[in-house]
Amino acid sequence: MSKTVLGIFSSERVAEEAVNDLRQEGFDREISILAKERKGKGEGEGEEGLTNAAFETADNIADGTTSGGVLGALAGLAAGAGALAIPGLGPVVAAGPISGLLAGAATGGIAGGLLDWGIPEEEGREIEQDIKEGNVLVAVNTSEDKADRAEQVLRNHGAKNIKIHEKK
After folding, report:
1. Which residue among 68, 111, 147, 161 is least crowded, i.e. fewest CB within 10 A of its CB?
2. At what angle do helices 12-24 and 144-156 cross, to 10 degrees?
3. CB of 7 within 8 A of CB of 138?
4. d(CA 127, CA 25)
5. Where do the H-state alpha helices sit in the chain?
6. Which residues pair with 142 in a beta bridge?
7. Can you list the pairs that 81-84 forms with residues at least 24 positions away whose Cβ atoms lie under 8 Å?
8. How many domains are there within the chain?
9. What's phi and psi for 95, nearest 5 deg?
């Protein structure tokens, strides 16, 4: 049985560091990032938009999964691909397997898309609110035996609301 490990980060930089550590631990194609699309091009925290480094991190994940045919349309994420319009939330950037879930469930919002990963609707709505507030979701879909390691990496980087769900 597979598991989904979720963590919310208030800092894009820290989320990027967590993703890098997850990749060093052997996770790659199972990593997803979801964040509110930012309009600015600056590098500072708290700006209204994803930093260039966040795009690069998401693009690296996309590069790692596009070759496997999982992401397809996210190959050019840094150029703007991977942006989805979520009702009530606006444009978001999604990289990794989560992008497919959300593209198919755009009318149901983030909460609707996360149901397929075994995440209860109420918790999905909380995640949606976190994204709306500018936080970054890092999710790892992995085997049951690796879920604890993914959780530990997220915890080591200070993720909040870390949860593990059994994927349906």
Report:
1. 68
2. 140
3. yes
4. 25
5. 12-24, 52-66, 98-104, 109-114, 121-132, 144-156
6. 3
7. 82/58, 83/37
8. 1
9. -130, 140
What's the CA gap between 111 and 113, in Å, rounded? 5
Which tokens sit at 86?
Answer: 């979520």
Q: State which residues form the domain around 138.
A: 2-166
* Residue linked to tokens 């319009």: 85
**Prediction pTM value:** 0.73
Mutual angle of helices 12-24 and 52-66, in 10-degree steps: 30
pLDDT in tens, 112-167: 778 878 889 899 899 989 998 999 999 999 999 999 999 999 999 999 999 999 87
Q: Report pLDDT digits (tens) over 4-44.
A: 999 999 988 899 899 999 999 999 888 989 888 765 444 44
Residue whose entry in the numeric block shows the structure tokens 């990593």: 31
The 8-class DSSP code of residue 166 comes to E
